[in-house]
Amino acid sequence: MDGVSSAFASLGGFFGMFDPLCGPVGIFTLLGQGTLIACGDAGWGDEIALGVGVTISLALATLPLGLTIGFLVALAAQSEEKSLRLAAGIYTTIFRGLPELLTLFIVYYGMQILIQWMLGMLGSGGRVEINAFLAGMIALAVVNSAYSGEVMLSAFRAIPKGQYEAGDALGLRRGKTMMLIILPQLVRIALPGLVNLWMILLKDTSYVSIIGLSDILRQTGVAARVSKEAFFFYMIACSLYLGLAILSSFGLRYIDRWSRRSEVVR
């Protein structure tokens, strides 16, 4: 079990009562008794619940990093500096063109090779292994930022230049204008596209199972191989991903209403 999975396991006792799968009123606890998804030593419920926690944590950790990088890419893409526009264009072209799985391999194995090379230059040997959670977060954030940067760039272009001029007329510095005038409009305009990117990110977390992270797909895959009930456990995985998508859609719908609260009804 890797470090991230161990951390989740150590916190299991504290958060156990809130576990929607194996808690006191969890789905597996109430409906899975005597089956392969029973909680405890009798089934695979605890392992799958751990995988759900890892998947959600990875998506939530990746999202702010991807959005932050994407915002910087969007700023560079509309900069007056030609070199910044060129760099932003190259960045988005590369990471939108590469398959997500290949990007994950490049980050996971490439970081290990780079760190080993740097240690070798310093005279230190030994094998270096990168944490799978960190590698997955960086790889998914890079891919997410390439797409979110394009979404935000379109939102920037949809905001009239008069908004910037209004900030200047009020005596606001460009940073204040961005925070108080531009960003609220940017969020409202870009939100539909960013909602779709969140759904894609949630599904793309399944790639980290390839590098050994104990997410939903890896945990259900192990259970399927051991129990020889592949169809059953992969259907459980499908149900869990669909459940997360449905819950996300409710939350994102609320955020969308909140972002539009200032619009005048015509």
UniProtKB/TrEMBL annotation:
InterPro entries hit by this protein: AA_ABC_transptr_permease_3TM (IPR010065), ABC_transp_permease_HisMQ (IPR051613), MetI-like (IPR000515), MetI-like_sf (IPR035906)
Keyword annotations of the record: Cell inner membrane, Cell membrane, Membrane, Transmembrane, Transmembrane helix, Transport
Compartment annotation: Cell inner membrane; Cell membrane
Segments forming domain ABC transmembrane type-1: 52-253
Transmembrane helix found in the keyword field: yes
One Gene Ontology MF term: transmembrane transporter activity
UniProt cross-references to PROSITE patterns, sorted A to Z: ABC_TM1
Cited SUPFAM superfamilies: MetI-like (SSF161098)
Domain of life: Bacteria
Membrane-spanning intervals of the chain: 48-77, 98-118, 130-147, 180-201, 231-252
Family (UniProt): Belongs to the binding-protein-dependent transport system permease family. HisMQ subfamily.
Record protein name field: ABC transporter permease
Organism: Ectorhizobium quercum
